[in-house]
Each structure stands twice: as structure tokens, then as C-alpha cells.
UniProtKB/TrEMBL annotation:
Listed InterPro entries: MATE_fam, MdtK-like, Membrane_Transporter-Flippase
Pfam families: MatE
Top-level taxon of origin: Bacteria
Organism this protein belongs to: Bradyrhizobium jicamae
This protein's name: MATE family efflux transporter
Predominant localisation class: membrane
């Protein structure tokens, strides 16, 4: 596994000659940047990560309340939404922690190097990328949805309700992409609270608006499942306007400027070299669950459900890792850009080990007491037996899963996402390949599959650690 960007040549920034910029004294004092460069490492990580817990609460609230209200319409509406929701979550995740991390990393590195005008340009290019991604989702997904949902089992009224929900949500996808990419530009400055607060406000507005649109209220007609989709994109649209307004104000460290700004490939490339691997990594993580569920399903529906219930804990670990990981991206990126390489490395390992310990602790708890988790979902004895087997085999190595997740964010902070993305792909191939061999060659049954999944997590941690250890400062920098 090689990463061609491990030792980047120096690329001093030469801004385009445009209208005379405002003097530095007129810009807000970058106290947050100073905190990232000089603050105590662990305390600063926790301080920056704390607001991101709101993101976890926001996503859980969307999942919970949408299911509750759609269930009131009927079983077909709830089942149809279950077909569309994973794809809507994919839009949210790829722009929040995938491409969004590319924006955050690029802005943080520019500010750390003292190139505030470059950070402004990157913010403008993030806005253009958001428009392009939104247009892509709004065009491709409504065309593909009938085939995707049909392949997933959608039929008749269930398929109609799924399309009503999806077409509304994907039609306004630009509201999601703009909010998340511009929010990550703000995160790159060290301000984690604004984006988290806007997201929570959007979710609260969604919870209030969606049922009114679904069932009708006053002059509002009953829109059925489509109301849930519009109830999501309308608040996100307002949130996007709030984010644009903030980035256009004097309070923001970076500015979203339109006058005199022109697209430049170098700016897009700085975002995409981290954002594209991050986006693909998100897709790989979701694909791995689909593939492994399919392999487990060869032993019957109880085995598939048992694996799914056990592995659902991994969906909880990912937002936890994201909460700390966004702080890692900002701190590592800023210090790397400022050529504080030793401090960047200390931040990297402190953050990654923190995530590993949190995930490892959760894994040990469910390995010892699997009923605490599995009892939330099913009381079927066979599902409980298989889920217990999964957690007792895989739970103790969740520390490796957490380390891999943490080091992925470290790579994004360095501006090298390709190697970490490759490590996650290798994890999928190891888990699926070794799992198939254990099942069909060694005849080890579902236990062999679970052992293969655990091995995949260990490989993931080892490869991401190797990727981080291989990162070196630019050749013209002082000794690290």
C-alpha cells in the first residue's frame, strides 16, 4: 500500500491579484487558531469535541421521530421510508464527515500557515462544491431510486411511499450539502459550536414541521410521506442561509467572498485530496455492513439479524469518533500548516488513543454483558444467541476499530486521506474474504465469520497506524 502524497513538496501560497484585501487588523482576532496552536492538547481536544455530541443527538432524533410519525401514517409509509432513509443518511454523512472533512482540513492547514486569504478562497470553493454535490444528488438519486428501492424489496404502495419521501428529500439535497460543507469550513477555524448548534436547531424545526406537513395543519395540506422529506430540507435550507450569513459577517475568521472570486483547480484539489477519500471511506464503511449481513444471512434470517443487532453498536461508535475526530482534523491540520510537526504528532496520537479507549471500553462492556445491548432490539432466543456470539468475539477488538477510526481523522488532518481509505477497503476485503473462506472452506460456520470480522478490525488498525507513521514533513521544513 503506497500513498503518493506522503511527502508533499512545498507549495507556497501565491494568491491571485484581486481587489485590495482588508487589512489583517480589520479581521477578527484568531483566538481559536492560537488555542489550536498553543492550548493544552487533551483539554483542547475535549473542549472542541464537546459540541459535536449534539450531532449524535441530532441524528438519533431524526431517526427516532421520523420513524414514529411515519408509523402513524401506516406500515407501508414506515417500510417505504426505511428504503429511502439509508440513502438520505448517506448524503448527510458524506457531506458532514466525508467531503466536509476535506474542507475542514484544507481551511485549518491554510490558517495554520498564516494564509488567511487562501482560507477565504477555500471557503468559496467549498460553496461551489456544495452546489455541485447538491445538483448531483438531486439529479441522480430521483432517477435511480425506483430501481434501487425495487431491488431492496419495494413493491406497490410501499414503493410509492418510498419515492414520495425520497423525491422530496433529494430534491432539496443542496440545502444539506451547503449547510454541511460551509459548516466544516467554520469547523476548520476551531469553531465547533456553530455548525453543531445550527444542526440541532434544524432537527428541532424538523420535528415540529414534519408532522404538520405529513398530516396537514391549518392551511397546510396533508402531504403524507413527502411531508417528512420537505420537513427535513426546509430547515436545512434556512440553516444554510444562516451559515452563509455568518461567513459573510465580520465575526467569522474566514470569509465567503463572491466579488472577484473565480474558480481555481488548485483550491478544489486541496479539498478533494482529503474529501474524496473521506467520501469513499464513508461508502466503504456502509457497504461493509451490507456485505457482511449478506454473508451472515446464508445461515438464515436469525443469523443476519443477530449480526445486524450486534454490529449496530458500530453505528454508535462512528458518531462518537466523528465528534472527537473533527477536533483532531482542526488541531492536526492547523499545527501541521504552522510547521509545528511534533505537536501535530502528539495531538494525532492523543486523539486516536482517546477514541480507541472509548470504543474499546464499550466493546468490553457488551462482550461481558451482551444482553445490555441486544435486549434493546429483540427477545428472540436464537437472535440473542448469535448476537451474543458476535459481541463476545468482536467486542474485545473494538479498541482496534476505534484506533482505525481515530487515525483516519489524523490522516485527514495531515491532508493524506488516500492511505487510510485504502486501509478501510482492505478491512472489508479481509473480513468478507476470510469470512467466506471460514464459512465455505474451513466449515467454521458463523463463528468463523465473526472471527474474520474481528481480524479485519485488527488489520484496519495496523494499516492506519502504518499510514500515520509514514507521514513526514515537507522536505524544506526544519527537523521534526
Amino acid at each position: 500500500m503506497t500513498d503518493p502524497s506522503i511527502a508533499d513538496p512545498p507549495t507556497p501560497y501565491s494568491p491571485r491579484p484581486v481587489a485590495k484585501p482588508a487589512p489583517v487588523a480589520a479581521r477578527p482576532a484568531a483566538a481559536r487558531t492560537k488555542l489550536l496552536l498553543e492550548g493544552p492538547i487533551f483539554a483542547t481536544l475535549l473542549r472542541l469535541a464537546a459540541p459535536n455530541i449534539l450531532n449524535l443527538i441530532a441524528f438519533v432524533a431524526v431517526i427516532t421521530f421520523d420513524g414514529f410519525f411515519l408509523g402513524k401514517i401506516g406500515t407501508d409509509a414506515l417500510a417505504g421510508a426505511s428504503l429511502a432513509f439509508p440513502w438520505i443518511m448517506l448524503v448527510l454523512q458524506t457531506t458532514n464527515s466525508g467531503m466536509g472533512a476535506g474542507v475542514s482540513s484544507a481551511v485549518a492547514r491554510a490558517l495554520g500557515a498564516g494564509h488567511r486569504e487562501r482560507a477565504d478562497e477555500l471557503t468559496f470553493h467549498a460553496f461551489l462544491l456544495a452546489l455541485a454535490l447538491g445538483a448531483t444528488f438531486s439529479t441522480v438519486m430521483p432517477l435511480a431510486a425506483p430501481f434501487l428501492f425495487g431491488w431492496m424489496g419495494g413493491r406497490d404502495k410501499m414503493l410509492i411511499d418510498a419515492l414520495l419521501y425520497a423525491n422530496a428529500a433529494f430534491g432539496g439535497a443542496v440545502c444539506i450539502t451547503v449547510l454541511n460543507l460551509l459548516g466544516n469550513a467554520v469547523r476548520g477555524t476551531g469553531n465547533m459550536s456553530l455548525h453543531a448548534g445550527v444542526l440541532v436547531a434544524c432537527v428541532i424545526a424538523h420535528i415540529a414541521l414534519a408532522p404538520a406537513l405529513m398530516f396537514g395543519y391549518g392551511p397546510l395540506p396533508a402531504m403524507g410521506p413527502a411531508g417528512a422529506g420537505w420537513g427535513l430540507v426546509i430547515p436545512f435550507g434556512v440553516g444554510s442561509l444562516v451559515m452563509i450569513g455568518y461567513l459573510r459577517s465580520s465575526r467569522s475568521i474566514v470569509r465567503l467572498n463572491f466579488v472577484g472570486a473565480t474558480p481555481r483547480w488548485a483550491m478544489f484539489a486541496d479539498i478533494l485530496k482529503v474529501g474524496v477519500p473521506g467520501l469513499i471511506n464513508t461508502a466503504i464503511t456502509n457497504l461493509s455492513v451490507v456485505v457482511l449481513t449478506g454473508i451472515a444471512g446464508q445461515f438464515g434470517p436469525e443469523a443476519a439479524i443477530g449480526y445486524a443487532m450486534g454490529s449496530r453498536l458500530e453505528y454508535i461508535m462512528q458518531p462518537i469518533a466523528f465528534g472527537i475526530g473533527t477536533a483532531i482534523v482542526a488541531m492536526v491540520g492547523t499545527n501541521w500548516g504552522a510547521r509545528q510537526y511534533d505537536r501535530a504528532r502528539r495531538i494525532a496520537w492523543t486523539g486516536a488513543i482517546t477514541i480507541a479507549l472509548v470504543c474499546g471500553t464499550l466493546g468490553l462492556i457488551v462482550a461481558v454483558r451482551p444482553g445490555l445491548w441486544l435486549g434493546l432490539f429483540s427477545d428472540d432466543a436464537e437472535v440473542a444467541r448469535l448476537g451474543t456470539s458476535y459481541l463476545r468475539i468482536v467486542g474485545p477488538v473494538y479498541v482496534c476499530f476505534g484506533l482505525g477510526l481515530g487515525l483516519f481523522f489524523v490522516c485527514q488532518g495531515y491532508g493524506r486521506g488516500f492511505a487510510a481509505m485504502t486501509a478501510n477497503a482492505v478491512r472489508l476485503f479481509v473480513s468478507a474474504g476470510a469470512g467466506l473462506a471460514a464459512v465455505y472452506w474451513f466449515k467454521l460456520g458463523v463463528t468463523g465469520l465473526f472471527i474474520a470480522i474481528a481480524a479485519g478490525f485488527c488489520v484496519y488498525a495496523a494499516l492506519t497506524a502504518l499510514a500515520v507513521l509514514r507521514v513526514s514533513p515537507p522536505s524544506d521544513s526544519p527537523a521534526a
